[in-house]
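[[Encoded backbone]]
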Amino acid sequence: MTAIPLQPHFEYRLWGGERLKRFGFQFKDASIGEAWTASARPNKGSIVTAGPFAGMTLEKLYNEQRELFGIEAQTFPLLIKWIDSNEDLSVQVHPNNELARLLENEPYGKNECWYILDAPAGAEILYGHTFESKDTLQQSLSDSHVMSGLSRKHVSQGDFIYVPAGTVHALTKGVCVLEIQQSSDTTYRLYDYGRLEQATGKARELHISKGAQATFTPHIDYMEPPLPLDHFRTRLTHNPYFFVEKWMITQHEIVETDTFRLLSVVDGTIEVDGVSFDIGATLILPANQSFHLSGEATCIVTGVAPLTKPMARIGIDIGGTQTRVAVVSTDGRVEKQFKFKTRPHLGLDQLLHQIALIVGQFKLEYDIAQVGIAAPGPLDLKHGSFLTPPNLPNWHYQAIVEPLHNRLHLPVTLENDANAAALAEAKFGAGRHVDSMFYVTVSTGIGGGFVYKQQLISGAHNSAGEVGNMIIRTDGPTHPTLNSGALETRASGTALHERALKKGFSNSTTLLHNDSERDMFVDDLATGLANIIHTIDPDLIVLGGGVTASAPLYWNQLQDAVAMRVYPHLRGETPLVLHQLQGDAGVIGAAFLS
């Protein structure tokens, strides 16, 4: 059985136009906004155009020839659309499976994704919001003031964006996309700019109550890095509802299918078993077949993933500004994550609710063994509680491990964020080839962690590595909780920012361009690093944190300054290196806490 080509179903839209013709589609009607190239929706189905099943709708093909697909879903689970946003689309949100069954008696909710086919320079889409509660969201919707609380995301041709059900979103004028989604046409329209339908002269219906019920509030932002599969295939997403891959065909390739694939040609021309297909074509590659591909083409390919659940670890990194919840693979790779604003002023229950919501999403796809939390100190690790983290003032002396365990029914471990980052760098980053590594994070504050043979050394009172409170100058500035002249009061990002403001510099980076100010920073940080070397004699010191973004300004000078502060026989024996895991170290280390 060779590929099965499909003829699209076209949909009029108030905001549509004629730009889909640029992608090979042919139609006579005006304001065509969507071409449904793989649809099994009733009365809106795609039709097979060639081969033994020519003339059959995709719905009928799926119902009568199930062996072509290799899945057991009761109804065909996917829908592919090519969308021309000739004007701004309405602000909308989609329900998840559970809510779709409850409110609409529909089998599927609407998780979807977009491959950006075309976008004007500087294009932005609406994606997410800043409302902190469903009450404030619904009030804003009722008052037609919702636009002031919506977030924007820059997009350009070739970008890929996953839009989980519950995410407020809207495409904007000039953006064309290939949309892959669950087979659902349920959309809750939240705001429509006061537009009127030409045929009726009336405004389109809004769905404020259902939309507010469906929306993630506060907003949760989804991120999933692309994963190269081989020399021509890259996975863009893999989730409980579908997977999406980008295939770059430049030579002869042979692919084999287990379950069916839907292949859409978004650029160039591809030959499948000797039959040529141009841009705009969508084909079914039936299950359990082998296909010969050639030509010069970019294709977006989707299908339904098997229902097996791999084992996974969850890492949570709680910061003063944002919190991230990630699935981490056994080799230390962040597979996917959600992030959201921490908002400690809302209370700890709000944080626990959002974490539980995200872990619930991950449980649909993974068999989760454990959950680790990295959080700013000081912490009471014995009782799983915050003590007095400066960036989380509303949560002082509150327990987090036990209440989160009670919500998730999973083992939960808590650790200082610097220690978690140190563990990650030791296992998977800059320190993976040595026995002993000390990690120093120079960020808002200064923290540290010591790892020996990939085990954290926490100390008798879980305070080992707290180098931020190390005294390096007797005449240093005072601090409410730190020692006068402590390293953090001299060399942290906060200290540099305050000094920049006091000295009339625009920011800390500008401050470090000044020779005397840079010398002072290097002297202070080098003193702290030399003290670490003399105290524990590690194989390696790894520096991370936001201030290392300016490392080119001071790195060579810092190396020399540390060498001048240690015994002669130690000079050059303890390399200083920059972190490798960047902003992922916290969630990776948290996932591997035991």
Notes: Residues 382 and 460 are 11 Å apart (CA to CA).
